[in-house]
Amino acid sequence: MTVFAPDHAHAREFRDALGSFATGVTVVTIASPRGPQGLTANSFASLSLAPPLVLWSPGKFSRRHDLFAEAGHFSVHVLADGQKSLADRFTRGGDQFAGLEVTRSPEEVPVIPGVLTRFDCAREAAHDAGDHTLVIGRVLRVETGEGAPLVFAQGQWGRHLPG
């Protein structure tokens, strides 16, 4: 067992420690004045059942941070096992929407077909949170399918294996 204070000298150790918490992998999409935008994010969580709220947190280091933090509507696409290539499309330098058959939500947000689950949201609030912004969304509708989620933990991609 290692004990340390999460200061600048231990930044890598802190990041590795956070990596011990397995997360699902999502792609958040928005409509913007610069066209459709998407961003791979594992900073997604449920927040409230009544009212139905979720949150995610774009990093302030992203050139597109303000577009995502200020978007009035967004969709969170939960990726299924086997959709790592889709996650890669929406990372820095990825192909984004090139070649994808994208539809639009009633709020005109780009919708990626074939994902495990999608949450269409209206931005409820945004809060400063260090080097990220916490974006809270009110869930307007959910589309869900069947399958195992894509999981990321300890720097590795994998899948959830029910016991």
Keywords summarizing the entry:
single chain, 163 residues, mainly beta, Pnp Oxidase, Chain A, seven-stranded antiparallel sheet, three-stranded antiparallel sheet, 40% strand, globular
Task: Describe the protein.
InterPro entries: Flavin_Rdtase-like_dom (IPR002563), NADH-dep_flavin_reductase (IPR050268), Split_barrel_FMN-bd (IPR012349). This is NADH-FMN oxidoreductase RutF, flavin reductase (DIM6/NTAB) family. Keywords: Oxidoreductase. It holds the Pfam family Flavin_Reduct. One of its GO terms (molecular function) is riboflavin reductase (NADPH) activity. The chain has 163 residues and is mainly beta. It has a single domain, classed as Electron Transport, Fmn-binding Protein, Chain A (Pnp Oxidase, Chain A). It contains three helices and twelve strands. It has helices at 11-18, 65-70, 84-89, and strands at residues 23-24, 26-30, 37-41, 44-48, 53-56, 73-78, 103-104, 110-111, 117-129, 132-144, 150-153, 156-159. The protein has a seven-stranded antiparallel beta sheet with strand order 3-2-6-9-10-5-4. Strands 1-11-12 form a three-stranded antiparallel beta sheet, with no helix packed on it. The longest helix has 8 residues, at 11-18. It is globular, with a radius of gyration of 16 Å. The chain starts with 10 loop residues before the first helix and ends with a strand.
